[in-house]
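Q: How do we represent a protein-ligand complex in a form that can be generated token by token?
A: Start from the inputs.
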Amino acid sequence: MIVLGIETSCDETAASVVQDGHILLSNVVASSMDLHKVYGGVVPEIAARSHIESIIPVIDEAVSSVGWGSIDAIAVTYGAGLGGSLLVGVMTARTLAIAKNKPLYAVNHVHGHVAANFLTSTNLPNYKLPEKQPDFPLLALIVSGGHTQLVFFESMFSYTILGRTRDDAIGEAFDKVAKIVGLPYPGGPSITAAAKMGDANKYPLPKSKLDNKYEFSFSGLKTAVLRVAQEEIGEDFTFPSKNISERLSERQKADIAASFQRVAIETVVDKTVTAFEEFQPKSIVIAGGVAANSELRRQLTERLPFSPIYTDIKLCTDNGAMIATLGCFMVTENQPTADPYSLDIAPNLTM
Ligand code: KG4
Ligand code: ZN
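Then emit the structure tokens for the protein with zinc ion bound:
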């Protein structure tokens, strides 16, 4: 069973070929991140144009190692994501499914992030994959730029959402805080780098308290960071956030980054530990771009009785391998195929 996965939901044009839901045969990612950096975030129009330029060469490279004859099915992200970006992937996958006469599978991007943890072997260089696949029931902490949620999976296609964020996603909070303190986009890696030099206990930032113990909220934390930064430069709450960073010292930036990262990560770790105690899953996975965060991995390893499954950092941020892997599971578990003549995008899709 060999599946081609295509992913274009945000700023990464990605394609990958996966065998039997666990062997990574190819993984190609072309990112337009550098084009967005000057704007401090992803510009949807630029992302969509870049996908158009990159999609065919990226798919060609991903398929070249196995050849079209070996591909059994095509899986594509149809949501959630940016409309223009999703369209490029979906229209390309539909066309290829018709032209190459392959079944087409429509994949939920967020669910795909979880599936990335099921890849256990590859001949590609520089991948550090888990030794075995996670067992069900499985607890997944999904932490990305667009989503923050805890999901309990009885099996790959039978799951319960325990809670999600009411406002910002955790990755979005990293990106917004980075902008306030003048660190480059994407905020996750640059906050982590700055935090290494900072004092994580310098500022007592608040953790959100919500009625539902598995719900998340990050907008209050982001506003608290803004107030701290304004106070540090001797201004009140009316001072514009875009003018703060030039007046912060490197020391202050590092302390804010470290304090924010500690509280944001503690928030998701607290809830993951609570869910682990209540539901007693056989395994735990973390998924999405923020799963690359070293502080998250450190805190989870320290506080859980067994180590969660951590996959390669390249498979945490957006990639085609996670889509191809979930595509393999869709084939083997008899999930419905999509109509290549009518599959539509679903920008606001949830799990
Ligand atoms: O999963 P992803 O690539 O795209 C979405 O589906 O949203 O996640 C991107 C997010 C961005 O907000 C980025 O700042 C964050 O993941 N991120 C990180 C790290 N690497 C990426 N956040 C914290 N620590 C990191 N090392
Ligand atoms: Zn993602």
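The two ends are 25 Å apart (CA to CA). The chain has two domains: 2-130+313-332, 138-303.
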